[in-house]
Amino acid sequence: MKTEMNTVKVRKTEELEAEQLGAHIGEIVRLHGSIYKIRKMSSFAFVLLRTKRQMVQCVYEPAYARFALEELKEEACVRFTAEVIREERSRSGYDLHLLDVEILSEPEEVPPVVINQKRVNTSIENLLDYRPITLRNEKERAVFQIQARICQAFREFLDGQHFTEIHTPKLVAAGAEGGAELFKVQYFDRPAYLAQSPQLYKQILMSTGLDRVYEIGPAFRAEQSNTNRHVTEFISFDGEMSWIQSQNDVMAMIEEIVDHVLRGLKERGAKQLEVLGKEINVPARPYPILTYSECLKMVNDAGLKLNEGDDLGTEGEKIVGDVMGQKGIDLYFIAEYPEEAKPFYIMEKDGTPYSYSFDLDYRGQEVSSGGQREHRYDVLVKRMEKKGLDPEDFEFYLEAFRYGMPPHGGWGIGIERFLVKMLDLPNIREAILFPRDPSRLEP
Ligand code: AMO
């Protein structure tokens, strides 16, 4: 094997992306990354380098390299100089033979969990406690690369539907979704809260000419629930659209969005899905619309006794999910919940105890809720009072309605719950980089 370091010039491009390497056979290149794994063979070693976009396998041969293998430690950050040599037996068609190394940083100690295997084999607590380390595993990281692509697809689709992306305050004066779930913070000399959702602000905009808006942002819930589907901070993908005829317009929009996301991911998330060993099923459209009353009957028939007006709850949702699953249906709406169970901003279904509201359930779990809003000022104020709220606390919101408000509706999708069901993850925390729950505030 030749080593003509002195006669072959290092390319000017310096740091090359791994996927570009195949075009540089016969050249000497530089590339940087973290050493993921060193696999010693009898007379040489494979050094797996984790680069920005992918894993690159390098070959260390004592006769070729100008440094000792012992200088390399797993998780060290390095800059390698290597020669790209054609190798038909390699999947990439070439081998990268290491010549030199510049060590940029070295690990202080061996990581507390083994990360350089197919998956990080540890408890969920360790997985989260050691996030800065466990994310170095390809599988752990893939979930978040998929999450980013989901958000990208949301944006792309809604921009095409003439929606405007907005950002609403997360420090607010009033709760929108129910009093007990509010995080109170000290805002100089007065109390404030962390926003439970962008609900009131996205609705206010409906009368301004910004008549189709969406937001992807954090939502906070002071829920003492230690379940695998609740956290205290999640990312809500909210949309609101005016001039609707009925809540069916909103459900149709969500259906299109979800379909676009799932179809798109099959392609643009293909690499990560392969890493995770998952396939995405794109359900047939239209997604069925069940009513709350139909679901209540399904649940009772299955032996879980619920009364009219009761929340379907985790168990109830699961039963409905099983019934739908047997019919091969993954995604379906549950519409017309009792008005009593829904927040003040939801429109009542005239003359009935129900409301123009819906949830979108994905294999037995609610991933989104939404509905048509009450846009008539006087009816809205009455509904607030009925819910025990003081309209004066919502003056900033009501003002938008006092001066004319078009019919409108919208939705909120919890993106982590969506991801959990799509990838069949066991716990919502696995779909959050740094989850927050009643007992977790770090890392
Ligand atoms: P809702 O309160 O149902 O509705 O929330 C909407 C969606 O957000 C997700 N979600 C959560 N995810 C994780 N942990 C939690 N504690 C949590 N709470 C909610 C769920 C849920 O379906 N303003 C309305 C939406 C609207 O009508 O536009 C709202 O916030 O996926």
How many angstroms separate the termini?
Answer: 48 Å
- Approximately how much beta-strand content do the residues carry? 25-35%
Outline: elongated
Fraction of residues in H or I helices: 25-40%
Q: What's the pLDDT, averaged over the residues?
A: 93
Biggest sheet strand order reads 7-11-12-17-16-15-14-13
The rounded Rg comes to: 27 Å
Give the beta-strand count. 17
What's the tally of helices? 11
Question: Which spans of ≥5 residues are poorly predicted at pLDDT below 50?
Answer: 1-10
Largest sheet: 8 strands, mixed
The small-molecule ligands in this entry are:
aspartyl-adenosine-5'-monophosphate
The ordered H/E elements are EEEEEEHHHEEEEHEEHHEHHEEEHHEH
The SS-based structural class is alpha+beta
Please, could you describe this protein's structure?
With 443 residues, the chain is α+β, with helices and mostly antiparallel strands. The protein contains eleven helices and 17 strands. The strands form three sheets. An eight-stranded mixed β-sheet has the order 7-11-12-17-16-15-14-13. Strand 15 and strand 16 form a beta hairpin. Helix 3 packs across helix 5, helix 3 crosses helix 11 and helix 7 packs across helix 8. The chain is elongated. The relative contact order is 0.10. The N terminus is likely disordered. Bound molecules: aspartyl-adenosine-5'-monophosphate.
